């Protein structure tokens, strides 16, 4: 089943299409979903250098590959079906966080981080309902990731103060978001800490050099047309991406 479902997801993504959950044979659980996700990654030619972390509805820490993962200014992304935009902070690990019996604490995660970046994620799932009806199916579909663009670096202190900064996003010079940035669980490191302490994660995960995005600061904003997205966080951080 993993190979067949991965092929189905791959073809839908390639055709910029989405189908209802009922049209899929959904994975039985999170472990099977990750098997499908890895098969999908192989079909897409994705590498394993960048990930997103999240929490399932049942409270389990999960991760999904970011592909394509781009670091060049003014990179372009294909919009896909029913696209949404998320502005996020991403971290790069300076050292590996191996699986261990003793739980990690936040200070250890912070110490392992070598760099912090502003970033833009494009979300477009091949599953029409996303994860609303079957979270394992959504996880198999890489949590809807359609691509990620890494923006300018910033200091670690932003992880503690990002909720105090204004965020402005525009598409083709028209405002999409204008307000205070806010992470869904306040602390951007919460989901990364949870994943670091997940005993079921891959032994090769969270190695040095890995980039992990930490969750949206603006929710998921629907995108109605292609064009240039411009993002400004606080007084100093800005970036843009082309949607096509």
Automatic annotation (TrEMBL):
Segments forming domain Fumarylacetoacetase-like C-terminal: 82-241
Q: Quote the SUPFAM superfamilies the UniProt record gives.
A: FAH (SSF56529)
Q: Does the keyword NADP apply?
A: no
Q: Which InterPro entries match?
A: Fumarylacetoacetase-like_C (IPR011234), Fumarylacetoacetase_C_sf (IPR036663), Hydratase-Decarb/MhpD_sf (IPR050772)
UniProt keyword terms in alphabetical order:
Lyase
Q: What is this protein called?
A: 2-keto-4-pentenoate hydratase
- The organism encoding this protein is Pararhizobium capsulatum DSM 1112
**Upper lineage ranks?**
Bacteria, Pseudomonadati, Pseudomonadota, Alphaproteobacteria, Hyphomicrobiales
């Amino acid at each position: 089943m993993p190979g067949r479902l991965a092929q189905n997801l791959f073809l839908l993504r390639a055709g910029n299409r989405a189908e209802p959950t009922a049209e899929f044979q959904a994975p039985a659980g999170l472990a099977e979903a990750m098997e499908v996700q890895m098969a999908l990654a192989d079909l897409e030619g994705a590498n394993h250098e960048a990930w997103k972390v999240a929490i399932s509805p049942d409270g389990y820490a999960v991760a999904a590959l970011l592909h394509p993962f781009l670091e060049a200014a003014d990179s372009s992304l294909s919009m896909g079906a029913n696209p949404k935009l998320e502005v996020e902070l991403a971290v790069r690990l300076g050292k590996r966080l191996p699986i261990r019996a003793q739980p990690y604490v936040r200070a250890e995660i912070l110490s392992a981080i070598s760099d912090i970046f502003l970033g833009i994620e494009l979300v477009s799932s091949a599953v029409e309902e996303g994860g609303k009806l079957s979270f394992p199916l959504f996880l198999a579909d890489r949590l809807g990731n359609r691509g990620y663009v890494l923006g300018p670096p910033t200091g670690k202190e932003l992880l503690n103060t990002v909720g105090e900064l204004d965020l402005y996003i525009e598409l083709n010079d028209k405002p999409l978001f204008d307000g205070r940035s806010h992470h869904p669980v306040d602390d951007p490191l919460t989901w990364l800490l949870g994943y670091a302490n997940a005993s079921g994660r891959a032994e090769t995960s969270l190695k040095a050099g890995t980039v992990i995005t930490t969750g949206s600061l603006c929710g998921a904003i629907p995108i109605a047309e292609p064009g240039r997205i411009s993002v400004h966080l606080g007084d100093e951080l800005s970036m843009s991406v082309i949607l096509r």
